[in-house]
Design brief:
InterPro entries: Endoribo_LPSP/chorism_mut-like (IPR013813), RutC-like_sf (IPR035959). The protein has about 150 residues and is α+β, with helices and mostly antiparallel strands. It has a single domain, classed as 60s Ribosomal Protein L30, Chain: A (2-Layer Sandwich), CATH 3.30.1330. It is built from 3 helices and 7 strands, in the order αββββαβαββ. The longest helix is centred in the middle third of the chain and has 22 residues.
Length: about 150
């Protein structure tokens, strides 16, 4: 099954790739590795803002991470000229969770993105990963995630 078909099966329509919020590019292709800048938690209603351990449950944080994963796929699609079939595998995700000092479930939050990538890419979506706490994130968002994809 193609990536586009899997997205459709999951009821996901990729948005336009978000524009950078500062002085950086949304992605860089080096050889066959596509590095995608951090994508913040946002959905059709706007930015998902808040702090895990104070404002959000782990499940709500995982949904915010899933939003980041959707933006990562939108950036990958743009980088691939609209052809998601060029994605060979997801190499790595680095997730940042806006969380209180005593919150320790960052991995469960970032699972929202990891689970989506495996659902969309199958075994090619299994990846190396970091999930870390941040005292704050840009614009007060709950989650930010960056990615590295290998392209065919």
């Amino acid at each position: 099954m193609t990536i586009d078909a899997r997205l459709a099966e999951l009821g996901i329509t990729l948005p336009d790739a978000p524009a950078p919020a500062a002085n950086y590019v949304p992605f860089v292709l080096v050889g066959n590795l596509l590095h995608i800048s951090g994508q913040i938690s946002a959905n059709a209603d706007g930015m998902v803002k808040g702090k895990l351990g104070a404002d959000f449950s782990v499940e709500q944080g995982a949904e915010a991470a899933k939003c980041c994963a959707i933006s990562l796929l939108a950036q990958a699609k743009k980088a691939c000229g609209g052809d998601l079939a060029r994605i060979k595998r997801l190499v790595k995700l680095v997730g940042f969770v806006n969380s209180t000092a005593d919150f320790t479930d960052q991995p469960k939050v970032i699972n929202g993105a990891s689970d989506l990538m495996v659902a969309v890419l199958g075994d090619a979506g299994r990846h190396a990963r970091s999930a870390v706490s941040a005292a704050s994130l840009p614009f007060g968002v709950a989650v930010e995630i960056e990615a590295i994809f290998e392209l065919a």
